[in-house]
Amino acid sequence: MTYSVAVSGASGYAGGEILRLLADHPDFEVRTVTAHSNAGQPLVAVQPHLRAYTHLTLQETTPEVLSGHDVVFLALPHGASGAVAAALPDDTLVIDCGADHRLESSTDWARFYGADHHGAWTYGVPELPRLSGTQRDRLAKTRRIAAPGCNASTVALSLAPGIRAGVIEEHDLVSVLAVGPSGAGKSLKAHLLGAEILGSANPYAVGGVHRHIPEIQQALRWAGADRPTISFTPVIVPMSRGILATSTARLVPGTDAAAVRRAWEDAYAGEPFVQLLPEGQFPKTADVVGANTALLGLAVDEQAGRVVVIAAVDNLVKGTAGAAVQSANIALGLTETTGLPVNGVAP
Ligand SMILES: NC(=O)C1=CN([C@@H]2O[C@H](COP(=O)(O)OP(=O)(O)OC[C@H]3O[C@@H](n4cnc5c(N)ncnc54)[C@H](OP(=O)(O)O)[C@@H]3O)[C@@H](O)[C@H]2O)C=CC1
Ligand SMILES: CC(=O)N[C@@H](CCC(=O)OP(=O)(O)O)C(=O)O
């Protein structure tokens, strides 16, 4: 069976990446693409790299235009998807790449986003360990998926195995991330990109204010933490795509190094898209550009009594669009890896 698909926010970075992946997906046919200020334009006028779609024109983003498809991907700014999603039929598979449906706690939502909370959908990171099984089990039974924040899923995948296995303490978690500016979307001002991001590393959202903090804490609670606390600091660096997250955590006293490594090996054994590198090897962002792969390296720092996990992810693939397509595959009962690249592009 071929599933008909609509992609909203198709003129943006996340929507464009969903379209790039779907062009090679044998079970999906993209029939409709929508946008906002670019509605009325041919898709390739705005996304000239997407040559598979020369026949499509961007339409207005309305529930009427999006209805009548089997699958709808929403890649809209925060706050814009809640109302659109609420008007779509229950049996349509809807995947929201924005934050509107990620958080279970309306208190966290109010604190970090402020506006109306639309409730939580099934979180779209299949490999996340849960107290019983993985997030994959829940994705198999849903028609509403909240694709993750790219930083949040990178850090959650880095730390959740240690929480799940009881080898790291849940307070005193620290993550510092180098992130590419494409994570901020196309609306990031051109002068910022050229004059301030090229040639510089710029910290932002410093001091416990980044909106991905509650998303990470929520994933760590699913892995068994009670009240996890994390210091989270992102730094924009001049690379178009990518996240390199360095996360450290205090080891539970008496835990030996072999048991620590085993926790991550066990969590991700057999996972095609989350891979732990051998001892002594660490990933670079260049290893995962264009791939739906999260690459992890792990070391035990004995003198500090901490584990150090370094994770590389392409924010637009495993961090968003790839996670969205992978989760949609699971929800539809398709082979999970269909249409998704495990290899990156190099150099
Ligand atoms: N970039 C990333 O790495 C990640 C992004 N996300 C999330 O994905 C979503 C899209 O992000 P991204 O692609 O980066 O953003 P972009 O700014 O690149 O794209 C935004 C898209 O939304 C459309 N749009 C803007 N305003 C409205 C509106 N009021 N109603 C309907 N459509 C509108 C734009 O249309 P037009 O161009 O025609 O105005 C465009 O297609 C966001 O929620 C973002 O947080 C999640 C994880 C990572
Ligand atoms: C460079 C940059 O600004 N990155 C974004 C990542 C956005 C993202 O992952 O998605 P959501 O906005 O959907 O949560 C940030 O840190 O906020």
Search tags:
alpha/beta; seven-stranded mixed sheet; binds N-acetyl-L-glutamyl 5-phosphate; Dihydrodipicolinate Reductase, domain 2; 2 domains; 347 residues; binds NADPH dihydro-nicotinamide-adenine-dinucleotide phosphate; Rossmann fold
Topology:
Layout: E1 3-8, H1 13-22, E2 28-35, H2 43-46, E3 58-60, H3 63-66, E4 71-74, H4 81-86, E5 93-96, H5 106-112, E6 122-123, H6 135-139, E7 144-146, H7 150-165, E8 173-179, H8 190-197, E9 202-203, H9 213-222, E10 230-236, E11 243-250, H10 257-268, E12 274-276, E13 294-301, E14 306-313, H11 317-331
Parallel strand pairs: 1-2, 1-4, 2-3, 4-5, 5-7, 6-7, 8-10, 12-13
Antiparallel strand pairs: 8-11, 9-10, 11-14, 13-14
Helix pairs in contact: 1-11, 7-9, 7-10
Can you put this structure into words, describing what you see?
The protein has about 350 residues and is of the alpha/beta class. It has eleven helices and 14 strands. The chain has helices at about 15-20, 45, 65, 80-85, 105-110, 135-140, 150-165, 190-195, 215-220, 255-270, 315-330, and strands at about 5-10, 30-35, 60, 70-75, 95, 120-125, 145, 175-180, 200-205, 230-235, 245-250, 275, 295-300, 305-315. The strands form two sheets. A seven-stranded parallel β-sheet has the order 3-2-1-4-5-7-6. Strand 2, helix 2 and strand 3 (about 60) form a beta-alpha-beta unit. The longest helix has 16 residues, at about 150-165. The chain starts with a strand and ends in a 16-residue tail after the last helix. The mean pLDDT is about 95. The structure holds NADPH dihydro-nicotinamide-adenine-dinucleotide phosphate and N-acetyl-L-glutamyl 5-phosphate.
